Amino acid sequence: MTRYTSINAPGASGRHPVTVAVSAAALWIILSIAFLMISSAVLAAGGSDEQKELAAGIGKEFAREPVLGSDPTLEDYLAYAAQKNPGLRAAYHGWTSRLERVPSVSSLPEPVFSYMYYVESVETRVGPQRQKFSLRQSFPWFGTLGARESVAEQEAWAAYRRFQAEKLKLAYQVRKAYSEYYLLGRRIEVARSTLELLSGWESISRTRFETGQSGRSDLVRIEIEIARLSDALRALEDSKASVTEDMINALGAPEGIEIPFPGAMPEPAVIEPDTVMTAVLSNNPSILAIDHMIMREENALRLAGKSSWPDFSLGLDYIDTGPALDPDMPDSGKDPWMVSLSVKLPIWFGRNSALKEEARARIEMNRYDRKDTVDDLRARAERLLFEYRDAASKTELFAGTLIPKAEESLAVTLIEYEGGDADFLHVLDAQRLLLDLRLEMEEALVKREIRAAELEMLAGRAFRQVN
Asked: Residue 133 has what DSSP assignment?
């Protein structure tokens, strides 16, 4: 429905008073709607200042050029990965692209300019109409722009939570790769030191054999043990390339970069089950992202409700009119100006109702998705807490009891061997036991660190400072 009101039409002063009143009322309605709609557009176009500040701060971090020193720490690796990893940068730009949508969806539609040229002029009393210029601006119903902005903002917040999740996942991957690289270094170190020790025993055993103090069997056994350990050391050194590649991929570092073996593991995390579980259920980015999607759908439902109300369009028309045939005609050649108001009627009630039901269904989908995610995270956290406690207990058992006893057993066996009260097989067994226990302790220590890192990833926070 469109109503036109002529402002400068000829003979306006002679119109009926009712016509003048209707025209004035229509103009007042048009100006009021324009004011309210433009005010709504200005308020809706503000965007999310908090997110913009966050994005600007993270963008500055990405702009820095990280450098790994000759002896980098875990904290250095984490900082490097946070600035160089391509997956994290992709998640960041995915978030900022959503953020940039907020002003576009919350702004008014673009105005439409049209031009009409009369191939055959329309003759009027005041002269021929030759061409027409029109300008149209559409305005959605009150609150529509704000609802669109809220939908886009919640989508951007959800993308930010996904960026957070990617950052936490990256930190976990770096810590896991760092821990496994440390374990490989310790295995190589223990194998080399043991091999040096066996080489010394080989010399002693050969001397004892040559002087007739022992049989050749002891020498053969130690030669077999040296060959076996040498092969194991070779396999460990060959695996360094693949483990290093995991570190390079997690860091986003260039190929061929030299990464030294870590000298030590970070201080153990302080893991309190209740604290961890509370953090997982309140800080996990996946849960927070779903919360934002629920709010997004609630705003989408509000937006769907606006579809049941009309949209408006304001128009301004100008007609270029030539001079009348009668030069004495009053208002000859006067160009009329017109304003118009158009209303889009939402008469397809089935469509509007379907939009609302779709939004309600998505709300329920996200609510059930949240419950499923919470249940899954709770079960995963419980399993990780058990594995962390088990690894921590084993670490203490190895360090406090088993390894000291194995060292004592080896020392006693060596004394007995030198005194001729034990054969060399007992020495090898004692040495092999000590080696196995030391490696098992390192494995338990690394497992404890990896489980702590995974718990921190789920909880969205650290439980200890990184050295």
From this structure: E
